[in-house]
Amino acid sequence: MSTIHPLQTDKLIADMQSKGFSMMDVPVGRTSDNAITGTLLLLAGGTTEQVERATPVLMAMGNELVNTGGPGMGIRVKLINNYMSIALNALSAEAAVLCEALGLSFDVALKVMSGTAAGKGHFTTTWPNKVMKGDLSPAFMIDLAHKDLGIALDVANQLHVPMPLGAASREVYNLARAAGRGREDWSAILEQVRISAGLTANVKK
Known about the structure:
The chain is mostly helical. It is built from 10 helices and 3 strands, in the order H-E-H-E-H-E-H-H-H-H-H-H-H.
């Protein structure tokens, strides 16, 4: 149930199978407080039969179980979840410090961001409605996103607020613009990163 390298998990699964045993991985999400109260999110990586058999025992530790796929998939989805949460923590800190440097109330910023993709996230807002539907027609163009990001970074620079993650993000938008995606919807960044990773684009330009 620990967060370990997926290849270690795969090796353990293979070793168990070679000895005639089956294994599933069930890393958990949420916090130590949830562990105490039995309200963990359980990320079950196993066959349907394995997960169904283990569910009564697992639910003693949590109140929500997600079948993530076959053995080894639990740790993979936890790794992605933690990566995103940890990186967003640092990016959020940049935004919060810029708010403070600009004299903005954190409560006001929180209220605004809670109603936009900044607070709700692209997994649940922009992507399902645009790029994941194969629609790259611009609701908000990459060119405009690049411009706005640049202004924010310029302001931060003038106020001596370090924004390393924002600067790195601008380079991703630079890549998309260089690839001719400037007038596409900003959710097309997903396609650009896919191509940069050597994967096939899901949406034809």
